[in-house]
Amino acid sequence: MDKVVGLDQVMDRVTDGMTILFGGFCGVGTAITCIDKLVKKGVKDLTVMAVVATQPGGNFDLAPLFANKQIKKFICAHVGTSPEAVKAMKTGDLDVEFYPMGSWIEKVRAGGAGLGGVLTRTGLGTMVEAGKDKVTVDGQEYILEKPLHADIAFIKGYRADKLGNIEYRYAGLNTNPTVAMAADYTVAEVNEIVEVGQIDPQRVGTPAVFVNAIVQGKNFGEHVATYRELWTHSGQIK
């Protein structure tokens, strides 16, 4: 099965009020081409789940979605990297639901694995436990964190074969493999699309069974240039 589709075809699936899950961490391993298209489409009232808001300083990654008030609710571990998200939260235009970072990724993993939740001691005795069920196991008390699952997920890989096997590169292998499993429909944006058999099986980070569609993002040279310009401009590299 050839899962390569056009970006417009993927965007036809996205409607107002959807729950969307994004892979990546601080802008690295993020499906930036897909995000740009979502901004242009103007879908609104979205519930978005991502481990952090944007790359430090905002103005990239998910930042335009926050700035355009397209996101109604944000489920994350950290929001402070994005001035746009912080502003929307302060003005009451954005509802933010926080989880400890480890709990967030475990909730997503549970959503992908079909589990009823995960037990954790992280957050006991703090506001994190408010309103949540607690379970005692062998005399130890745990918070029951329920799974996170989305209508659609956008992940970012380095290469994909046409069947949908995804290869990641360096830090792109962050939340993406877990996120890929936790949605009804998973879209992989990649730098390069190759024929089946051209990716070493040992380098497959997400098997094809979890991927519904592959879209061509920036090629690798364009991708490197985009991030080099971003990080140079922000002073993160010289």
UniProtKB/TrEMBL annotation:
SUPFAM superfamilies: NagB/RpiA/CoA transferase-like (SSF100950). It is an enzyme of class 2 (transferase). GO terms for molecular function: acetate CoA-transferase activity. Pfam families: CoA_trans. InterPro entries: 3-oxoacid_CoA-transf_A, CoA_trans_fam_I, NagB/RpiA_transferase-like. Keywords: Transferase. Its EC number is 2.8.3.8. This is Acetate CoA-transferase subunit alpha. It comes from Sporomusa acidovorans (strain ATCC 49682 / DSM 3132 / Mol). The gene is atoD.
